[in-house]
Amino acid sequence: MSARRHLMRQTELVDRVRAYDPQADESILNKAYVFAMQAHGAQKRASGDPFFSHPLEVAGILTDLKLDTSTIATALLHDTVEDTTATLDEIKNGFGDEIAALVDGVTKLSAIELFSERTKQAENFRKLMLAMSNDIRVLLVKLADRLHNMRTLAHLKDSEKRRRIAQETIDIYAPLAGRIGMYNVREELEDLAFAALDPEARDSIVKRLERLDAQSGKRINRISELIKKKLAENGVEAFVYGRAKRPFSIWRKLEHKQLNFEQLSDVFGFRVIVKSVEDCYRSLGILHRAWPAVFERFRDFISLPKSNGYQSLHTTIIGPENQRVEVQIRTQEMHDIAERGVAAHWRYRENVDEHDARTVKTYEWLRDMVDLLERGDSAEEFYEHSKLAMHQDQVFCFTPKGDLIALPKGATPIDFAYAVHTDVGNSAVGAKINGVHTPLHTPLKNGDQVEIIITKDQTPSPLWERFVVSGRARAEIRRFLRHAQRDQHVKMGHKILEKVFTDEGYELTEKAISEVVKKLRHSKNDDIYADVGRGALRAHEVLEAVYPEIKQKTRAARRPARYDGPANGRAVSIAGLTEGIGYKLGACCHPIPGDRIIGIMVPDQGVVVHTLDCEVVDRHQDSMADWIDVKWKDHALDVLSVARVLVRVKNAPGALGSVANVIGQNGANISNLKVSARNPLYFEFQVDIEVRDAAHLENLLRALRVQASVEVVERVRGLNSEDASPEAQGVLI
Fold first, then answer.
1. Could you say which DSSP state residue 693 is in?
2. Which one of 227, 310, 402, 405 is most buried, counting C-beta atoms within 10 A?
């Protein structure tokens, strides 16, 4: 929108709302219009337009979706709390609790100090999901807000900021629009983001489409008329229209199928709107009799609707003029939902009719996300799970009783088990797919009947995280393992503290630990033991918190030790060892600066340093006398250390190269790589990476996890490290 163009007047906005809602409250709309215009005052956008033009355009987008008065008012007000001196209390006093709650849901967490841009993004997303779980209109306003921002993205001068906003759009907001059935919004968001992220690729496709259009002339109109005529000849009245697909949709298909543009024939899509469900199936039969159907390109979303309520028949035919075309057949009601998604039948979540199966299914995915939030995962874990869930197509499987379970593409029986019930997932020991015993990591296909075999003695395996693809399954596995490990951490922490206190001539008492609980603002003693057991707190820090007077004595007693092992040719420094004692780093767990570590005295070898969660440490719990409480010295961070990482990527060209690029771009270096497994779907490898410290490694792992080709990334710990000899592990032999 240019600054020279007039702003939409109050009367224009009111007329647009009253056109579809004659009962709309005109006074609320007028009041919100004036309040927002005055609040934003002389503020300007990057384009030079008045800032008020933005909330006004957002409101206009929502009138196209035929939203109610409160939502339109929220659109006008949505930036006032964040970008002006207006407060939420003013909104509440002037417009009521409902609109205030909507405005608050859309407002970012801008006042919160967060550790990183990624964490800030994750926390904002978490807040948005919570708000939209109470009222889906929060998401509708947010999507309209993002759509207008993307339409005007080119006016931002900061190229890096443009890329970040475009990437967030394609990762989160476009899939969210698809999730609630707003496919037009999703496609426009994707295409606008594509223009910002890869303008050369998009321009190339646009030019090819223009050439194709010039060659085909009015082909789309001719094909539409021929389809309409063929249906009419067989007694079906239909409205038919067609269009070329958007550039991003074509680009995604070219990448996915590894084709060039000339090989891609189905660049046209046609929609057939008929009067009834019966006419949908009749039309399908007529088209398949008239023109050859393309094998395996038929989908029935009427009998099996998508999770967002979308219904339609999809088929591809070698149609009129020998042109391969995709056809979607639906009723007008289905078309409204396909065009406007949840906006076509929005309602408060608490007012959802529990007996309306379609509506319940539409909101099921949102409830699953809220369940994940309530499980206590970090914001970043939740953000990762949500992206995973939203980006994948679905497969439809059945229980032995015939109940339908929708899962992400690539899902396994473990994903299926957790979709049935958490207890079923936690107790799964095997599965039958179509009556045949099958490994739990087997990918499921459409139409599979899945029976989960359970036993009370089974518990989730950490290995399951490698092959599950649904956010729910991953969150439940992690949640169970966290609870199961807590008891072990408490027990181990108690033993570590008992030894450290005894070595310094003190007795470990619950009363002493209670004092530490108060200082650290924990709730109970077990929290201290658990923190020590899992490495979040050093035993000597607890001791010094109880007896501050020993702090200097402890420091004075410690002298440099001798490093006996290589760390890529450079020595790392460990504090807490007696002068002259040799030490080396355990090859089983590859400790790096920033890890919580423990030293184990091995006869004739000196001290072997392990991470506290290494399996070798578990084996030495009964010989606590061999343990030494050690830590990294500050200048240990000046050298690079080697961490071992397991990576699983899709078995596709360029997958390994993308991993290597990410590692290099993040300031790390590959020192060794070994492929451990490979099949038609994926290949798995262990890679040794030189990093500065644990924080550097964690940032690298996060960067790898968001790559499209990467399925699993995790650090290798314990005895599964292939080159770890008993001596390197510090095992007593």
1. S
2. 227
CA atoms within 13 A on the CB side of 82: 15
Contact 558, 577 (CB under 8 A): yes
Q: Is 138 helix (H, G, I), strand (E, B) or coil?
A: helix
> How is residue 447 annotated by DSSP?
T
Whole-angstrom CA distances from 54 to 191, 375, 621 are: 20, 37, 63
The tens digit of pLDDT for each residue in 475-492 reads: 788 888 777 777 777 887
82 annotated active-site: yes
3-state secondary structure 509-566: CHHHHHHHHHHHCCCCHHHHHHHHHHCCCCHHHHHHHHCCCHHHHHHHHCCCCEECCC
Q: How far apart are CA 596 and CA 535, in angstroms?
A: 5
Query: What is the rounded CA–CA span in Å between residue 678 and residue 2?
Result: 55
In one letter, which amino acid is 604? D
Structure tokens at 293: 């159907």
Looking at the chain, the whole-number percentage of residues with pLDDT higher than 70 is: 76
Q: H-type helices in 267-327, by residue range?
A: 277-290
Token reading at 359: 């509506």
Cα(601)–Cα(119) distance, integer angstroms = 40
DSSP one-letter string for 383-406: HHHHHHHHTS-EEEEE-TT--EEE
Q: Are 369 and 130 in contact (CB under 8 A)?
A: no
Q: Which of 306-320, 331-345, 366-380 tops mean pLDDT?
A: 306-320
pLDDT computed for residue 513 by the predictor: 86
Q: Could you read off the pLDDT of 538-575 as tens digits, one per residue?
A: 777 888 888 776 655 554 444 445 555 544 444 455 66
| Token pair recorded at residue 590 | 């590859």
Helix, coil or strand: residue 647: strand
Rounded to whole angstroms, the Cα distance separating 292 from 272 reads 18
Residue type, 512: A
Closest by Cα among 688, 706, 583, 699 to 641: 688
Selected catalytic residue, list 25, 82, 90, 198: 82
Work out the angle between the directed axes of helices 10-20 and 53-64 (0-180°, nearest 10): 20
Tell me, what DSSP letter sits at residue 9? P
CA torsion, ordered 611, 616, 617, 623, to nearest 10 deg: -150
Nearest Cα to 313, choosing from 254, 345, 270?
270
> What is the structure's pLDDT at 111?
37
- Element of type H or E holding 317: strand 313-318
- Tally of CB atoms within 10 A around 294: 16
Hey, what are 510's tokens? 């619950």
pLDDT at residue number 601: 75
Beta strands 404-408 and 394-398 are antiparallel
Q: How many whole angstroms from its chain centre is CA 161? A: 21
Torsion over CA of 581, 584, 585 and 586, rounded to 10 degrees?
-100
Which entry of 26, 64, 83, 684 is annotated as an active-site residue? 83
Whole-angstrom distance, CA of residue 270 vs CA of residue 326 = 6
Distance CA 546, CA 611 (A): 25
Q: At what angle do helices 69-77 and 137-151 cross, to 10 degrees?
A: 50
Q: In whole angstroms, give the CA distance from residue 432 to residue 400.
A: 10
Active site residue 168: no
Asked if 677 contacts 647 with a C-beta cutoff of 8 angstroms, the reply is no
pLDDT for the residue 124: 61
Indicate the range of 55-69, 220-234, 526-540 predicted with least confidence. Answer: 526-540
Instruction: Please give the residue that has the higher pLDDT: either 299 or 604.
Output: 299
Dist CA 422 CA 428 (whole Å): 10
Task: Report in angstroms the alpha-carbon separations of 19 from 63, 66, 618.
Answer: 9, 9, 71
